[in-house]
């Protein structure tokens, strides 16, 4: 009997390398697994992917707008302004257009602006009271800032006129009137008032001040609009 017990014990030791101690002994982790885990936790990609993607998206939006401004080639040598399509919209879905300032046949500056509201973009642009974007065509600009008469003509600190408005006159027949340049004080702040009733609205005071300084310095009088020329149900045709 004792001999059988010894034989069983020896057989178990050979086959299982210690039956009763197998569970008691901790299993050492594989060096390869430890290395892989270390590589994952120390990788900067794991912690910076989301912020980097967000920054890239923002950069692409700005870049798209810049590329759009460079697509318009200033024609002729006369100094003028040209309003063209942009590539982005604000938080309320209002399109942001690009105002090109051309001096001596080259673009000196460009500004992001709005005209109309997000829900008036496809209304008749030659009909009074629609609050749609101003009609396509050629305009003559005033050379004097006047005080705005409506609350939606935003203030601009540092100018002689507190709520400056620069009027423009269409050189074609249209039912629209009282159009001009001014700051939009409700831009991205109020869904109902965001945008304009048809005027060209600057997004901030700094851009308007830069715009006015350039208009004065280069004595710009001519202004042309060519936006949404292929939009569905738009009755207007660009006059180039």
Structure description:
The protein has about 240 residues and is of the alpha+beta class. The protein has one domain: L,D-transpeptidase catalytic domain-like (Beta Barrel), CATH 2.40.440.10. Helix content is about 30%, strand content about 20%. It contains four helices and nine strands, in the order αααββββββββαβ. It has helices spanning about 1-15, 30-40, 45-70, 205-215, and strands at about 80-90, 95-105, 105-115, 135-140, 145, 165-170, 180-185, 200, 220-225. Strands 1-2-3-8-7-6-4-9 form an eight-stranded mixed beta barrel. A hairpin with a 2-residue loop joins β2 (about 95-105) and β3 (about 105-115).
Strand and helix map with partners:
Blueprint lengths: L1 H15 L14 H12 L2 H27 L8 E10 L5 E9 L2 E9 L22 E5 L4 E2 L16 E7 L9 E4 L16 E3 L2 H13 L4 E4 L15
Parallel strand pairs: 1-9, 7-8
Antiparallel strand pairs: 1-2, 2-3, 3-8, 4-6, 4-9, 5-6, 6-7
Keywords: Signal
Pfam family, one: YkuD
GO molecular function: transferase activity
């Amino acid at each position: 009997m004792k001999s059988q017990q010894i034989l069983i014990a020896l057989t178990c030791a050979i086959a299982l390398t210690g039956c009763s101690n197998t569970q008691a002994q901790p299993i050492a982790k594989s060096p390869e697994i430890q290395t892989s885990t270390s590589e994952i936790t120390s990788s900067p990609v794991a912690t910076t992917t989301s912020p980097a993607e967000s920054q890239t998206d923002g950069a692409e939006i700005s870049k798209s707008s810049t590329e759009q401004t460079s697509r318009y080639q200033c024609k002729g040598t006369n100094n003028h302004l040209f309003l063209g399509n942009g590539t982005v919209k604000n938080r309320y879905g209002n399109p942001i257009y690009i105002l090109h300032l051309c001096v001596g046949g080259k673009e000196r500056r460009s500004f992001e602006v709005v005209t109309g509201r997000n829900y008036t973009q496809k209304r008749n642009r030659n009909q009074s009271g629609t609050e749609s974007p101003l009609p396509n065509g050629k305009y003559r600009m005033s050379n004097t800032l006047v005080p705005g008469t409506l609350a939606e003509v935003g203030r601009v600190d540092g100018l002689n006129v507190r709520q400056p408005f620069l009027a423009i006159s269409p050189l074609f027949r249209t039912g629209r009137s009282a159009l001009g340049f001014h700051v939009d004080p409700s831009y991205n702040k109020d869904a109902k008032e965001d945008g304009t009733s048809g005027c060209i609205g600057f997004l901030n005071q700094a851009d308007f001040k830069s715009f006015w300084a350039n208009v004065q310095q280069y004595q710009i009088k001519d202004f042309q609009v060519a936006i949404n020329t292929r939009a569905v149900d738009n009755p207007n045709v660009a006059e180039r």
